[in-house]
Amino acid sequence: MASREMELARLPQTSDPPRGLLSAILGRLIDPFRRGVPPEPRPPTGFFTDTTVCIGCKACEVACKEWNQLAADGFHWSGNSYDNTETLSATSWRHVKFIEQFPPDNSLSRLVSEDLKPSGTGFSLDMLLNEPKEGRWLMMSDVCKHCVTAPCQQACPTGAIIHTEFENVFIQPDICNGCSSCVAACPFGVITRSSVDGHSHKCTLCYDRQRDGLVPACAKACPTQSIQFGPIDELRERARNRVEDLHSRGVTTAYLYGDIPSKSYSELNSFYLLVDRPSVYGLPDSPFNPWLHMKGDYVRAIVSGLTAIAALLAVLFLLGN
Amino acid sequence: METNFQTTNPRRPSSPWKESKVRGSGYAAGPVTKAPAWHGLVAWDMLFNGMTTGLFLVAAISELAAPDVFTSVAKAAYPVALVLLLVDLLCLVLDLGDPLRFHHMLRVFKPGSPMSLGTWCLTIYSLLLTVAAAISLLPGEWMTLESVRRLVVVIGLLPALGSAVYKGVLLSTNAQPGWKDARWLGGYLTNSALMLGCAEILVLSILMKHEPAAAILRPALGLLLAVNLIPLCLLLGDLRTTLSRIYTRRELYGVVALSLGGGVLIPLFLLFVVDSLLFTLSAAMCIVLGSLLIRFVIIKLPHASA
Fold first, then answer.
1. Kindly report the CA angle at A182 between A24 and B105, in degrees rounded to 5?
2. Does residue A179 share a domain with residue A244?
3. A-contacting residues of B 120-149, CB under 8 Å?
């Protein structure tokens, strides 16, 4: 962002004279209030994630970490399928989710258990290939939804969270002071405050790459085009065609999540093609923008305060005179 | 009313696929939102916010409504309110991820962001309160300064009320379990601020041996305690589902008994049954502790729901 660029430009160069303490303090106090020239609006961009072709390779996670120089999170067994990332975080801006949907007595188990009997003829490839499809895996690469009306941006008291010229939601790292309002406001649980620098972090939709005309790192790395990047109108058209195509092939449960607004939430600039309920993927079934309640909450608070003041005044006038 | 996203496929799937019975598989049972790192410090912040704004509001209203009785008590109250405000601001700053960037809050004025509105209200309130407290502490009486003090107090009413109001709305305007359903949280906290303020100024009056003021403030506090029950009960109604999910029935009864019994009924008993300094102080202490308990319960909601 303009502000970020100003900060980078002001970083000390080896040829610069040393900066005094007073100058450093003044810079820290004044710089956040300086404004750059906002860039000209550009066609809105976003992600379309087709979960039906995701193979769970996690190339998007790796590419994101690589490009954005995000620290490793360590490794722990989550016990949840192949998901060891567990959640979006300040250092994981992409998260591949794995959902195993198998009946408790799945056919593979039955095949294996039968074949392991002493009288069995062995475990053949044909048996595996002809296995009745009684189960499935769902995989989804989760990311910031880049909401058109973003509660995090509405909540941010410092103006750190903005919509870029591409209408993507972006946290200016030099402005955020880690108040966590955005963390509380996000209905998708995307934003996280870092325990290292104390600031909030999330996907930038590779703003730096976009400005240079490049595709975001995750979309570039995705080997199956599950993550598609482009102008949002084109993506929506492409997504609708894909849904129709899937329906014609018999996948009647396919639908788009977040491509158009609901009564309680705006459309998402990062939307999904799903084949099961949103909650199965860890998404809210009915996302709700908390700001829809705000006016009413203010009215109730003010009325309650005025009621108490009226009660106090009543006693003061009755007993004070 | 909440509605799902419109979809290109109106047949929202009722999937024939069953989720694995393997423990930990899938995401349907897990929390969707992330709880912010707001813990005990925020509960204390909520308490001190109520105590400073409430004390200022009650002192100012009392002084303006009955100057003969309350001017001397109010002049003692403003410096106390300033000290409480400083403690509150310290809690607010320390709770930031990067406390050295606290002044970034003043980069923008966003009325649509309760935290931004609250920051600006607190800033204006703190400036006016500082002037009022400073003039109150000056020895002697100068007519001009007194007029300035009164003017500052009158102007300070609105930002003080704004500072009391924003905190509850800040918590209820978000996506966290419990908080998002708490429609009366702002109402409760604002009302509670005035109740706390009344308790504080009553204690001050008694400590200053200002009997006429104490005689008026005692019934006023009783009335405010009763009035405060309304938003508190409405708030408990809002949080019923969340609380019953987090606490066992026994724990829930314990919390309600402590907050209602300890924070309302016992103070009422102490205020009106026995008229002594010790009992009034005990009543005020019960009110403060009851209010703190409720604030801790509220702050824990998203963490306990996760």
1. 35
2. yes
3. none
Q: DSSP string of A18-63? A: PPPHHHHHHHHHHGGG---PPPPP---EEEEEEGGG-----HHHHH
Contact with chain A for residue B287, Cβ under 8 A: no
How far apart are the C-alpha atoms of A56 and A75, rounded to whole Å? 17
Whether residues A47 and A33 fall in one domain: no
Question: Residue A105 is which amino acid?
Answer: D
**Domain annotation covers residue A320:** no
Residues 150-209, chain A: which have Cβ within 8 Å of B?
151, 154-160, 175-181, 183-194, 197-200
* Residues A238 and A125 reside in one and the same domain: no
- Calpha distance B181→B281 (Å, rounded): 35
Amino acid identity for residue B103 in this structure: H
Which residues of chain A are within 8 Å of residue B41 when distances are taken between CB atoms? none
What single letter denotes the amino acid at residue A12? Answer: P
306 residues of chain B, pLDDT tens digit each = 344 554 444 444 444 444 444 434 578 888 899 999 998 999 999 999 999 999 999 999 999 999 999 999 999 999 999 999 999 999 999 999 999 999 999 999 999 999 999 999 999 999 999 999 999 999 877 778 899 999 999 999 999 999 999 999 999 999 999 999 999 999 999 999 999 999 999 999 999 999 999 999 999 999 999 999 999 999 999 999 999 988 898 998 888 888 888 888 899 999 888 778 889 999 999 999 999 999 999 999 998 876
Q: Alpha-carbon distance A152 to A169, whole Å?
A: 9
- Indicate if the alpha-carbon torsion angle A203, A274, A221, A270 is positive or negative: negative
d(CA B256, CA A59): 51
Question: Are B15 and A176 in contact (CB < 8 Å)?
Answer: no
- For A193, which residue in chain B has the nearest alpha carbon? B97
Are residue A168 and residue A199 in the same domain, yes or no? yes
In Å, the largest CA–CA distance within chain A is 103
Angle at which helix B114-137 crosses helix B40-65, to 10 degrees, equals: 50
> Does residue A3 share a domain with residue A89?
no
A157 with A46, same domain: the answer is yes
Complex prediction ipTM: 0.91
The residue range of the domain holding A198 is 40-100+138-291
Interface contact A316-B62, CB threshold 8 A: yes
Closest among B86, B31, B248, B43 to A86, alpha carbons compared: B31
Closest Cβ–Cβ partner in B13, B24, B107 for A275: B13
Minimal C-alpha gap between A214 and chain B (Å): 30
Could you tell me where the beta strands, DSSP code E, fall in B43-201? Answer: none
* Distance of residue A276 Cα from the nearest chain B Cα, in angstroms: 6
Give me the domains of chain B, ranges plus CATH numbers: 40-305 (1.20.1630.10)
